[in-house]
Amino acid sequence: MRIAAVQMRSGTRAQPNIDALTGLVTHASEAGARYVLTPEVSLVFAKDSTGLAREAKPFEGNEGIASLSRLAAKLGIHLHLGSLAVALEDGKFANRSVLFGPDGQILAHYDKIHLFDAMLTGLKAYRESDSYRAGDAAVTVPLDPFTLGMSICYDVRFGALYNVLAGAGANLMAVPAAFTVPTGQAHWEVLLRARAIETGAYVIAAAQGGQHESGRATYGHSMIIDPWGRVVAERADDREGVVLADIDLAEVDEARRRIPALANARPFGLKRGSADGARILRKGLA
Q1: Among residues 55, 128, 153, 251, which one is catalytic?
Q2: DSSP structure string for 116-177
């Protein structure tokens, strides 16, 4: 199956982003992709909570979602909207990933579980939890012949999530993202490759890239990684574009046969060492 990751530089208003996304997804489809992933916050990359509140709409009756449903049906592909902000009744938002089938129907959606609350040196604090409400459930969905595991951006730092997804049958992990430049330079590729190696699964990562209208800068470097941890396709910059690769279920089977980490995993407890043990050792050495 041929898959594609779309790299975008989303702005602060939905319609121009939908227009840009439509062109990129159409290009991927014309190149033979049957599954196409877009980045995190594809439809609106808001500058602040005010901009987010102005552009984000409820899930039901959402015109942005309807537009992508029509696009998926027109192209006859699985179209995976990496994420969009969805307005919730309590005044917060969900960072929601949505998968459309080739008929345009929504097959699954996932709300980002791990929210990025951090202070990066030289940058202002990021506190997603000020605006977003975290999800509480992992999601897999059949994507014949694969099973897709859904995640979003900061989730990639939490390997336990991907082990749960793999345990539920996922062998293609989606990581739509908007990584900052400092964290992207330091951690992006190594984290993605680690998730592929740990689970023996393909990883497809569609990223935001470049200097955004919102004032933020993102790393780009969208890529597709095979179950052995090899980068098989990459956009080695932060510009808009498409990354394509052909994936094979036999590669998953072979990687998991060679390194059966999922099968070898065991539950375990925790013991804490004691000061008595250290004193005994010192006495014996004396």
Answers
A1: 153
A2: -EE--TTSPPEEGGGTB------EEEEETTEEEEE--GGGGG-HHHHHHHHHTT--EEE--B
Q: Which amino acid is at 283?
A: K
271 labelled catalytic: no
Sorted by where each begins, the domain ranges of the chain are 2-285
- Reported confidence tier of residue 196, pLDDT bands at 50, 70, 90: very high
**Rounded distance, CA 42 to CA 20, Å?**
10
Instruction: State both tokens at 246.
Output: 């052909």
- Architecture, CATH, for domain 2-285: 4-Layer Sandwich (3.60)
Is 283 known to be catalytic? Answer: no
In this prediction the pTM is: 0.93
Active-site residue (options: 112, 128, 240, 251): 112
Is 80 exceeded by the pLDDT of residue 285? no
